[in-house]
């Protein structure tokens, strides 16, 4: 191979997969509050998060698309707005709404999010609108976007242009691309022999942690827990959930059993992010259950992915697991990824007045294996 060909190959590797690069840059732009240009079906569309929808910004965006700006909402948000028959993203003309209505309909203004209803005529969103919604969720923003068509001359705008296809493919392309970046022994209160292994990758290139407790034998089924990060429960001992209890019980159980692997996954708020989790908590304080609150914000039942968790386990050398969970989707996800799930151990936290509705909703809405009467018996004696 010639030196020039080698250099060209090295340069190409520096910039990586163009499709992934497009999507990752677009995610960063939307999180920063800047609009992006979506190329879809031979046309160009301006797309922005509805989280920044003040009157001045709406007027500027609408002017750029010739008065054709639309608010695009998810089927989940439409159900919360009294339109359960809508199975696809739908759009409303911003010119008929105004900034206050846009903020209420998009659930940015939580004071009006619950009781808001639709008055304007809905139209089916263009495929670019669906891609923009996907981009918003990848950016951990509210799933409500402002979209409008642009003329080709708009390429002179100082905005990133990204193909809608790149956004649509991003999750699948990134799902199992994780790599170990660091590791070190970390003695814990209930398990002194532990190693923390940090991976980077998956959606958003976030860092995921595997806590290897003891010395699990790869030749035998290993205890495994997929634990999604919960800042409020894991760190501060929130009484609204049972996450902290489950986390601490997991480590102690694995230590007593001689070993196990706890995957601590950066998927706060069932994959919606900490900001949206706090929005959901606000709605729960007003009487909604955890899934009703997420739906009111426009989210589906559960936005988490577990395929990259299977990739983490494989890199650690584990293919045969006994899963510590009450969630049937975690069992199904690891099985779909090709791991052998030979057993399941239930994992219990405490039951109390603050989390009983949350636990019942997980059982009734998401099919978690929870016997509420058994929780008092199984709950750990001391979980802070």
Automatic annotation (TrEMBL):
It is an enzyme of class 3 (hydrolase). Zn(2+) binds at residues 230, 241, 243. GTP binds at residues 225-229, 246, 268-270, 290, 325, 330. One of its GO terms (cellular component) is cytosol. The active site is at 302 (proton acceptor), 304 (nucleophile). InterPro entries: GTP_cyclohydro_II, RibA, RibA-like_sf. Residues 186-343 form the GTP cyclohydrolase II domain. Its cofactor is Zn(2+). It catalyses: GTP + 4 H2O = 2,5-diamino-6-hydroxy-4-(5-phosphoribosylamino)-pyrimidine + formate + 2 phosphate + 3 H(+). It holds the Pfam family GTP_cyclohydro2. Keywords: GTP-binding, Hydrolase, Metal-binding, Nucleotide-binding, Riboflavin biosynthesis, Zinc. Its EC number is 3.5.4.25. GO terms for molecular function: GTP binding; GTP cyclohydrolase II activity; zinc ion binding. Binds 1 zinc ion per subunit. Signal peptide: none annotated. GO terms for biological process: riboflavin biosynthetic process. Pathway: Cofactor biosynthesis; riboflavin biosynthesis; 5-amino-6-(D-ribitylamino)uracil from GTP: step 1/4. Catalyzes the conversion of GTP to 2,5-diamino-6-ribosylamino-4(3H)-pyrimidinone 5'-phosphate (DARP), formate and pyrophosphate. Belongs to the GTP cyclohydrolase II family. This is GTP cyclohydrolase-2.
